[in-house]
Amino acid sequence: MLLNTYEPWKFAFSKENEDIKENSFGIIGVPFDSTTSYHSGTRLGPIVVREASFGFEKFNTTFNKELTAAFYDFGDVNIVPGNCEETCNIIEDTVNEILDLNLKPLIIGGEHSASIGAVRALAERYEKLTVVHLDAHRDLAFEFVGEKYSHATVMRRVHELGVSLVQIGIRSSSKDEEEYVKSTYDIQTFKNKDTHRHMDAIEYYLANIDGPIYISIDMDVMDPAIAPNVGNPTPGGLFISEVETIIQALSHKTIVGMDVVETAGDRLGDTTAVVAAKIIYDFLTLTD
């Protein structure tokens, strides 16, 4: 067990945290939602997503492949309720512990601010890091209701680290955020209609990214008909087959970490949790 974690549950098919196979994935949950501005409950995301993972067979019929990858669930980070900045510091420390074990982090959220700590740790170790960000929102506000550390500012803090951004599924943003995107050269945008009409262009772009990639998936990128229980649901989202296509395209690249955040289900068997677990399950199936 890592220093700052505890173990309420484990993701299905995870290995015991002994005799660790290097270059595989280490899972941590972040049960934090203190900056949530609409639908609260993402602090329960790690528990309900893990529970939902037990509904899947080890053979993945989508990719005609068995889940054979070794991965390890280290439990949940000990967050500081109400203190996003300190929680991000703890996440950064925990991700560094995972990296020191020669593992790659896979975070289950919890609100999207968790990405700040994870990417900070990775940006220190990898040059030319690209964050592929699936979301309904840009999350590029400089501050939100006076706070610089927030689910609505996460990608601004990430971009300030000098990483490139690829934003997919965007369908909601502010004028200031749009102006910020125009002012920089290293933010590529594919809006929601691009995923519906031009997936081939997205696949081509992802295939040509050089260097290490961190994947950040906000569950509100999905259409609310499929994943209704998220922090900020927005109509016109992606379908599971489109996310599967994106994950498959990225599986051929150098992935150094991933998060799946903003699941706000409050009960076992929650639909959004099942979809989030399926995304993680698909990703892990393709990593080996």
Regions with little confidence, pLDDT below 50 for 5+ residues:
none
Radius of gyration, rounded?
Answer: 17 Å
Extended strand count = 11
Question: Looking across the biggest beta sheet, what order are the strands in?
Answer: 1-5-2-6-11-10-7-8-9
Shape: globular
The end-to-end span amounts to 24 Å
Mean pLDDT: 93
Instruction: Assign a percent range to the helix content.
Output: 25-40%
- This entry's quaternary arrangement is single chain
Quick one: biggest sheet? Answer: 9 strands, mixed
Strand content: 15-25%
Element pattern in H and E: EEHEEEHEHEHEHEHHEHEH
Structural class: alpha/beta
Give the number of helices: 9
Essential attributes:
288 residues, 19% strand, nine-stranded mixed beta sheet
Question: Describe it for me?
Answer:
- The chain is built from 9 helices and 11 strands.
- The chain has helices spanning 45-53, 84-100, 114-125, 154-159, 175-182, 192-197, 199-207, 240-250, 271-286; strands at residues 5-6, 25-30, 59-60, 65-66, 71-77, 104-109, 130-134, 164-170, 187-191, 213-218, 255-261.
- Strand 8, helix 5 and strand 9 (187-191) form a beta-alpha-beta unit.
- Helix content is 33%, strand content 19%.
- The mean pLDDT is 93.
- A 9-stranded mixed beta sheet has the order 1-5-2-6-11-10-7-8-9, with helices on both faces.
- With 288 residues, it is of the alpha/beta class.
